[in-house]
What does this fold into?
Amino acid sequence: MASQGTIQEFVSLMGANMSTGQPFLSKRNLYGIVEKLYPSTLTDWDTNEL
It folds into this structure.
């Protein structure tokens, strides 16, 4: 993904992540990608998990 990925690229990544039935990226890894690509979009990890 480019440093400023699109939402479509992220959705494609999520689909690929689940395509085998066993994700290769954890929820925390996906959260980190969203946080890097779209700063200030989500709350911090702990708050998000609640």
User: Anything to note?
Assistant: The chain has a mean pLDDT of 78. The two ends are 28 Å apart (CA to CA). DSSP finds three helices and no strands in the chain.
